[in-house]
Design brief:
Layout (H helix, E strand, L loop, with lengths): L5 H35 L3 E5 L2 E6 L4 E6 L3 E6 L2 E2 L8 E7 L4 E8 L9 E6 L2 E8 L2 E3 L3 H13 L2 E7 L5 E7 L3 H11 L2
Antiparallel strand pairs: 1-2, 2-3, 3-6, 4-5, 4-12, 6-7, 7-10, 8-9, 8-11, 9-10, 11-12
Length: about 190
C-alpha cells in the first residue's frame, strides 16, 4: 500500500502544527523515558531473535524494541561516517494513556525541520512525522497498518534526513517481531 502523497503530507503537516507541540512534548517525554529505561531496565520480559520486550509497572508501560542490522549514512550522494546516538524502533503500549501499538523511531540525531521519515516494508511505504529526534505515525490507524506490515515482512527500511543534511537508511530485521509483540500485548493489556 503506498504512503500518502505530498499534498496529503503537507495537509497533514498543517493540520498537526497546532497539536504537534502538545502531543510532541508528551510523546517525546514518554519516548525519551522508554529509551532511557531500555538502557537501564532490568525488566526485560522477553527476547525473540532481533527484538526485545520491556515492561515497567509505575506507570504501566510495555514496549518492543529493536536496533538496526545495517545503517548507511550519505551526504551529497556519498557514503559518510557520522556519529549518531541510539537508533531504535519501538512499538509501545501505555494503557493508562490509552496507547496500544504505537510505532516510533529515534534516529540518534535531530531530524530536519518539517521532514518525514519513511518506513518501507516489502511493497508498503509509510510516512512518520518528526519532532526533534523522534518520529511516529500520524494516527492509531497508521500504527495498525504498520504493525500488520511488520508482521508480514522480513525487514523494515527506515529513511530519514538529519538537521545537518545527512540522509540515513537503517534496516531493521523483523524476525521474531510477531512473537515479541504478542508477548508485549499479553503483559500490557
Amino acid at each position: 500500500m503506498p504512503g500518502p502523497g505530498q499534498d496529503q503530507l503537507e495537509a497533514l503537516g498543517h493540520m498537526k502544527t497546532g497539536i504537534v507541540g502538545v502531543v510532541a512534548a508528551a510523546s517525546v517525554l514518554g519516548f525519551a523515558s522508554m529509551a532511557a529505561a531500555q538502557e537501564e531496565s532490568t525488566n526485560r520480559v522477553a527476547v525473540e531473535t532481533d527484538w526485545s520486550a520491556f515492561m515497567e509497572e509505575e506507570p504501566k508501560a510495555c514496549w518492543a524494541v529493536s536496533s538496526p542490522k545495517e545503517t548507511v549514512n550519505t551526504r551529497d550522494g556519498n557514503v559518510v561516517s557520522v556519529r549518531r546516538g541510539d537508533i531504535m524502533i519501538f512499538v509501545s503500549y501505555r494503557p493508562e494513556q490509552g496507547i496500544a501499538g504505537e510505532v516510533s523511531f529515534t534516529g540518534g540525531y535531530p531530524f530536519a525541520e518539517d521532514s518525514t521519515v519513511s518506513v518501507e516494508v516489502g511493497d508498503d511505504t509509510f510516512q512518520l512525522f518528526t519532532s526533534g529526534e523522534w518520529a511516529w505515525a500520524a494516527s492509531p490507524e497508521d500504527d495498525a497498518r504498520i504493525l500488520e506490515a511488520f508482521k508480514r515482512g522480513a525487514e523494515a527500511v527506515v529513511t530519514g534526513r538529519s538537521a545537518r543534511g545527512t540522509n540515513t537508511q537503517d534496516t531493521f530485521s523483523l524476525f521474531g517481531f510477531t512473537a515479541i509483540v504478542e508477548a508485549v500485548e499479553a503483559n500490557c493489556s
